[in-house]
Amino acid sequence: MQFSEIKARDDQYVLHTYARFPVDIERGKNATLWSTEGKEYIDFTSGIGVSSVGTANPKWVDAVAVQAAKLGHMSNLFYTQPCGALAEVLCRRAGMSAAFFANSGAESNEGLIKLARKWSFDKYGKGRGTILTLKNSFHGRTVTTLSATGQDVFHNYFFPFTDGFRYAEPTMEGISQVSGHDVCAVMLELVQGESGVWPLDQDFVHDLAVLCAERDWLLLVDEVQTGIGRTGTLFCYQQYGILPDAVSFAKGIAGGLPFGGFLVNEKCRDVLGPGTHATTFGGNPVCAAAALATLDILSEEMMGEISDKGNYLRTAIDAMELPCFGPTRGLGLMIGIEVKPGHTNREIAQQLMENGLLVLTAGPAIRLLPPLTITRDEMDKGLAILKQTLA
């Protein structure tokens, strides 16, 4: 099928909710992808951080195929081995106590919100359900997680939004200005991805964790994008020297299949019981098997390689001194590139894609989220396209 036919069918039958680039992908191997017509692309996107172990990773493919041949789905009213095995691996590597599995990042963050409000209700009763989030944050596209998102651009059309959120500047003074006796939790991303890849200040995060403990607020960390090795540790909070009360994850956990969830510490493990929270597909055995294979590939020993790869890409891009780019920022393989005035990130992304490099945009910046298994050769090919296109 020609690209024009693929696009025409999509335009006719798929809702136009995405500003798609004129690129179709048929197959791939690790961080190298090919269109239906055979054009090669280097992938610096991994499906917005989802294909964490690359495309068609053999260990991942085998795990999915073996489990699909045994059991594709089972209700959470019954036990399955992959679900419990995955929960154990995650809890042990994250230093947490228990897991809840869901399908997406937004659903995982909804779980954090429900957890915090029920925990506070059980302990303090009504009137203490407000959650503080940060300006420029992004927590999902459901009505409630849009309400939790600290960006005005998302607060339109879908009124009425869910009450119970206030937005703070990412400083202790900003937190103080929106605090109150009705607060039960603070929810934050340690690297604000959708607004342009902005890592939070280490001292601020530490002081906020201390404040949460003093005021008996839950500390909720949204690691939908930063988690599962993306920043160079299994979870980004492990680089910040904190242990949250609960942490959400999704995107890269199952290497390409829709999966997510959250982990809780000992204080929160008994907050949600039968009837208080559930989901039909959470803990799906095929997705859980894919996640186990993903975590096996992304071993503790590999975390240092991810940081090294991120440093390699950032150093190379900064050294190019491209006329449209300012400095890079980020952690591990979550990289933002400042776009200078007179250029737009959409324009730059389009030019790079035409020459065979797939990149993302975030806020006003270019965002890079390559597979964590990307090779040196693939990085060098991508960097060469970047330089040739933009120099």
UniProtKB/TrEMBL annotation:
Pfam families for this protein: Aminotran_3 (PF00202)
Tell me which domain of life the UniProt entry assigns to the organism this sequence originates from.
Bacteria
Is the keyword Nucleus assigned to this protein? no
Cofactor names from the entry are: pyridoxal 5'-phosphate
Q: Which UniProt keywords apply?
A: Aminotransferase, Pyridoxal phosphate, Transferase
Q: Which GO terms describe its molecular function?
A: identical protein binding; pyridoxal phosphate binding; transaminase activity
Report the sequence similarity comment from the record: Belongs to the class-III pyridoxal-phosphate-dependent aminotransferase family.
Identify this protein by name.
Answer: Aminotransferase class III-fold pyridoxal phosphate-dependent enzyme
